[in-house]
């Protein structure tokens, strides 16, 4: 590794690390190498870096917490690690608050800030790893809530023009694990902040069965948002492997949304098939169930495998390469297609 200091202007200096391991920067714990690595600590730095390093002509990877990327190979370009932090109340009325968080803020820190201040809306999203700036990328969701439910707007910088741009909720084209930033705007913007509108009154969402069960077990009849947050933390900690102990990126695949007709046909053949109706014509199927039925759950393949408690989570047992995990993902995809005729699509961003 080599470290080079760059003067962006008379008062802005940035450190560029060359040939650096990204092991500490991705939750799979993959020892992939980056050609160049820069940590950005302010908007001024980011603007200067875009211009001085001519980012529009470079191969780039924008990185938050690295909890939704699979570094399949070494990265022959520049990694920009977003470290813009801060949480601010920017507006308030009788019932609501508008909270703006900078992109590098740890997501769970934002959730805890809201829970501690009794601002309702993000508590079901407790303990999701990663940073605020990546949350809109795939409209993060868990336990009956997605960020689109409280999202107001985000600020981003266009890499091509270095201009600031505001994206409203409709601009973002949110859908299940989708947004404009995974589609037509992919690779074009660096998200710098996200604003949420939260509720000052308790409006807890306990629609997800597992939350109700935990609250009942803990004898909580009238849950506060802190109770819901704690219940979600309890469920997640019991189900999902902690990346600090076992490398993973959460669900590797999205739950496929298939025609209800096909679902009903399959249900005749596989009566235990797990699915939830999401519209008049579509049913969302539990990918974890499909993968488990194909015999992958808990299976160890070299240095990798499908987790023993949650088949949808692929793990690194220590020395896996990104390619090894990707090969396992392809095998799983093929076997689900063969057995059920269903395509499962990665949720994780394969780099
Ligand atoms: P990264 O992995 O750093 O980046 C993800 C993508 O966003 C990359 O394409 C990257 O280039 C891009 N990106 C990151 N920051 C920016 C930025 N500022 N501007 C532009 N592009 C950017 N997700 C859920 O939705 N629900 C869950 O319940 C859930 N549970 C998880 C549990 C575990 C144990 C793990 C490891 C992951 C889980 N995830 C879940 C996935 C992951 O936590 C989320 O997708 C999270 O939002 C990723 O944040 P990050 O900062 O780590 O993003
Ligand atoms: N299932 C199995 N076998 C398994 C895993 C799951 O049969 O090995 C079946 C079970 O019947 C279970 C159902 O699948 O009832 C759903 O499982 P779970 O409640 O664990 O949720 P999931 O659909 O596997 C999704 C998200 C998670 C999110 C949880 C809770 C996706 C791709 N994943 O998982 O998000 O935390 O719901 O809301 O939508 C992530 O995106 O990384 C992530 C972890």
Element-level helix/strand string:
EEEHEEEEEHEEEEHEHHEEHEEHEEEHE
Strand content: 25-35%
Task: Return the CATH topology of the largest domain.
Answer: Uridine Diphospho-n-acetylenolpyruvylglucosamine Reductase, domain 3
Shape: globular
Number of helices: 8
Short description:
With 351 residues, the protein is α+β, with helices and mostly antiparallel strands. 24% of the residues lie in helices and 30% in strands. Bound molecules: flavin-adenine dinucleotide (FAD) and uridine-diphosphate-2(N-acetylglucosaminyl) butyric acid (EPU).
Care to describe what's here?
- The chain has helices spanning 43-52, 107-116, 169-172, 209-217, 225-239, 260-269, 287-293, 322-340; strands at 2-9, 12-21, 33-40, 60-63, 69-70, 75-82, 87-92, 96-102, 141-142, 145-146, 151-158, 164-168, 189-199, 247-251, 257-259, 275-277, 282-285, 300-301, 304-306, 313-316, 349-350.
- By secondary structure, the chain is α+β, with helices and mostly antiparallel strands.
- It has three domains: 2-82, 2-Layer Sandwich (Uridine Diphospho-n-acetylenolpyruvylglucosamine Reductase, domain 2); 87-199, 2-Layer Sandwich (Uridine Diphospho-n-acetylenolpyruvylglucosamine Reductase, domain 3); 247-350, Alpha-Beta Complex (Uridine Diphospho-n-acetylenolpyruvylglucosamine Reductase, domain 1).
- The strands form six sheets. A five-stranded mixed β-sheet has the order 1-2-3-6-4. A five-stranded antiparallel β-sheet has the order 7-8-13-11-12. Strands 14-20-19-18 form a four-stranded antiparallel β-sheet, with helices on one face.
- It binds flavin-adenine dinucleotide and uridine-diphosphate-2(N-acetylglucosaminyl) butyric acid.
- Uridine-diphosphate-2(N-acetylglucosaminyl) butyric acid (EPU) binds next to strand 14 and helix 7.
């Amino acid at each position: 590794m080599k470290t080079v200091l760059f003067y962006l202007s008379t008062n802005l200096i940035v450190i560029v690390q060359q040939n650096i391991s990204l092991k500490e920067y991705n939750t799979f714990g993959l020892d992939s190498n980056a050609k160049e690595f820069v940590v950005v600590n302010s908007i001024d730095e980011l603007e200067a870096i875009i211009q001085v390093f001519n980012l529009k002509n470079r191969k780039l990877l924008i990185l938050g917490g690295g909890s939704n990327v699979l570094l399949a190979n070494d990265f022959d370009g520049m990694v920009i690690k977003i470290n813009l932090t801060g949480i601010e109340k920017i507006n308030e009325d009788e019932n609501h608050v508008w909270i703006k968080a900078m992109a590098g803020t740890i997501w769970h820190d934002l959730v805890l800030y809201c829970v501690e201040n009794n601002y309702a809306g993000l508590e079901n999203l407790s303990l999701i790893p990663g940073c605020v700036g990546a949350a809109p990328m795939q409209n993060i969701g868990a336990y009956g809530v997605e960020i689109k439910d409280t999202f107001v707007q985000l600020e981003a910088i266009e890499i091509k023009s270095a201009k600031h741009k505001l994206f409203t909720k409709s601009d973002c084209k949110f859908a299940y694990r989708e947004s404009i930033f995974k589609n037509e705007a992919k690779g074009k913007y660096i998200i710098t902040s996200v604003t949420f509108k939260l509720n000052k009154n308790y409006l807890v969402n306990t629609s997800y069965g597992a939350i109700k069960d935990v609250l009942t077990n803990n004898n909580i009849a009238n849950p506060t948002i802190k109770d819901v947050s704690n219940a979600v933390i309890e469920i997640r900690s019991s189900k999902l492997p902690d990346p600090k102990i076992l490398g993973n990126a959460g669900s590797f695949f999205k739950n496929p949304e298939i025609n209800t007709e096909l679902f009903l046909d399959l249900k005749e053949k596989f009566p235990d098939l797990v699915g939830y109706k999401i519209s008049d014509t579509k049913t969302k199927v539990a990918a974890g169930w499909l993968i488990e039925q194909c015999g992958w759950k808990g299976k160890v393949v070299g240095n990798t495998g499908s987790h023993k408690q949650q088949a949808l989570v692929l793990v690194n047992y220590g020395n896996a390469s990104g390619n090894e995990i990707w090969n396992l993902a392809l095998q799983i995809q093929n076997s689900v297609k063969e057995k059920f005729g269903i395509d499962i699509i990665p949720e994780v961003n394969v780099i």
